[in-house]
Write a structure and sequence with these properties.
Elements lengths: L6 E5 L3 H13 L3 E5 L2 H10 L4 E5 L7 H9 L8 E6 L4 H9 L4 E4 L4 H5 L3
Parallel strand pairs: 1-2, 1-3, 3-4, 4-5
Helix pairs in contact: 2-3
């Protein structure tokens, strides 16, 4: 049985990482809307609805933590899966991200196994 295609809002400022992550997600049957900074991601979130929010933590204009907290304040995103994407995945950092609004933390670079865990 084929699962319903989910839409991901992917917020990532590094162009190479953005394209690689998009390609991986699309190859696994996700629709992807890209944002290259936090402000653009918040704008997209206000314009549309998404099943999954994937947010880089180290964005140039506003931190990924601030982005997820702003999105969690929007009623349609209080229960949507929010995933932190970061290279800094110490236990303390993971705990902080989960305590401040993320549901899951994925280490860069993304892998098929990590994406399979989104469903």
């Amino acid at each position: 049985m084929e699962r319903k295609k989910k839409t991901v809002l992917l917020i990532e400022d590094n162009y190479t990482a953005l394209m690689a992550q998009t390609t991986l997600l699309e190859s696994m049957n996700y629709d992807v809307i890209q944002a290259s900074n936090g402000t653009e991601g918040i704008d997209w979130a206000n314009l549309d609805s998404f099943d999954i929010l994937m947010i880089d933590i180290g964005l140039p204009d506003i931190s990924g933590l601030d982005v997820v907290q702003k999105l969690r304040a929007i009623p349609k995103y209080t229960a949507v899966k929010a995933v932190a994407v970061t290279a800094d995945v110490t236990q303390d950092r993971r705990s902080e991200l989960l305590a401040k609004g993320f549901d899951q933390v994925i280490e860069k670079p993304l892998t098929i196994e990590a994406i399979e865990g989104l469903a």
